[in-house]
Amino acid sequence: MTAHRSCELNIDEYYTDEDPITNKRKYLADDRSDSGKDLKKAKLETKALKAKRPGFTDERYNETSYYIENGLRKVYPYYFTFTTFTKGRWVNQNILDVFAREFRAHPAEEYERCIKSGSLTVNYQKVDTQYKLKHNDLLANVVHRHEVPVTNDPITIVHMDDDIVVVNKPASIPVHPCGRYRHNTVVFVLAKEHNLRNLRTIHRLDRLTSGLLMFGRTPRYARIMEAQIRNRQVNKQYVCRVEGRFPEQTIECNHPIEVVSYKIGVCKVSNKGKNCSTTFQLVGYNEKTNISVVLCFPHSGRMHQIRVHLQYLGFPVKNDPLYNHVVFGPEKGRGGVIGKSDEQLIHDLINIHNAENWLGMDGDSELMPIMKDVDVVDEGKNTPPGFKKNESVMEQHQQQLQIKSRQTNQLQLQYDSGMNVSTQTGQDVPDMDFDAEKLTHDPHCYECRVKFRDPKPKDLIMYLHAWKYSGPGWSYETDLPVWANVEWKEPE
After folding, report:
1. What is the pTM of this model?
2. Catalytic residue among 30, 38, 206, 364
C-alpha cells in the first residue's frame, strides 16, 4: 500500500441531557399545548443534543468486548438503551403497532412483552400497548443487544498523521454504528483497540465493500477534505469482479439512479432518479471462469452507484447479494428491465431476505440521507488513464497477490509484517480468546433463545474494492485484494 501527501432499532443517535452527577439521562420536559410548537421544539432539542456529542464516551466503548471464534470477530451481548423522539409518521398511532411495523428485528410479541414489562417506555414511564404516541414523546427501549459477527481480517493503516487516518477496511465491517452494528464497526474497533478516537468520517463505504477509508483527526482537516469532495476535486478508483465478458473499450454509463427504498437500501436506474456517471475499463477476462476484472471511476456519489450501473450494463458484481439476483427479473435488471412495480420489488426483496437471509439490510441505507451527496469527484479531471498503463500496474499488484495467496494464514502474515493497526499505533493486541464468564444470558431476550448460524465466508465479502483516492497534493491507495487477480479462482 502506498500513500503520498504534498449511519434493528437504530435510534441511538438521539440523546437526552445527562445529569452530570448521576450520569443518568433526563427527559427534556415539554409543553404539549400546541402540537406544532412541540414538534419544532423536539427538532431543535434533538439538533442541540446531537451537537453536544461529537464522539463516544469511555462508558460507551466499555459496554462490552470482543472475542474471536471461527475466524469471526464477535461481540459479547450487552445491555443497551435505545432512545429517540417520536417521528411525525408515528403520531397518534399505537406504540405496539409502530414497533411491529417499523422495527422488524423482533416479532410483535417481543415488543408487546417489552411494553408490558416496562423495558420499553415513553418519557421513561411505563405505558400500555394501546398508548397513542404524541409529538415529542421520548421512547426508550432497554435491550439485551446481540451484534452480528464480522470478519476478523485486520484493519490496516495506509497512512496516518496528525490530521488524517487512512485505513484499508475489510469487507463486512460497517464504517460506524448503524442497524445491528455498534461495536463491530470500524469506528469502534479503532477507538477501543487502537486509541484512535473522535475520528471524523470524511466519506463512507458500504458494509460489504472493502478498501480505502479516510477519517479526519481534527475538525478543521475534516472540513478541508469534505470541501474537496463537495467541489469535485477528489478522484476515486475502484476495482471489481463481474460476471461475463466485459467490453474491451471504455464504457461510460450516465443513467440516473433512483432510490427505490431508503429503508432497505435498494436503488435502480430510472429517469426519475438523480444524474450520475461512472466510467468502466476492462483489466482482464478469464475465459475459464467467464469473469472479468474491471476498473471503476465514479464521477458522482449516488447510493450503490457502481453496483447499479454494472447491473444495468448486464455485468453485475459476481457475488453482489442484492443486484445480482433474479428478484430483479430473469435478466437481473439488465437494461433497466425489471418487470414489476417498486412496491412489488420491495415486497419480493423482503420475502427473499426472510428466506435466504442475504438482503443488505445492514443499516447502510440509514446513513444515506446524510451522506448520499458526499462522495463526488471532478467529472472534468477524472479521465481514466490508458488501458495499457492500468493493466501494467494491475499486473504488478497481481504478481504480489499471487505470492500472498499462497500464504495459509493471512492474518498472521499481516501481523508479522507489522501492517496491523495495533503495531502502528503502539497499542497492545487485546486478548481475543473466548471467556465464558463474559457471556451474559437474559431469560427474556429473544435472541438468547434463538441460535443463529455464523455467516459463511461468502456472506462476508463482495468483489468491490475502493483502491485509490487522490486530490490536490495527496493520494492514497491500498493493496489489491486477492480476487483482483484475473487468474484467481474462487474457493470451492
Report:
1. 0.75
2. 206
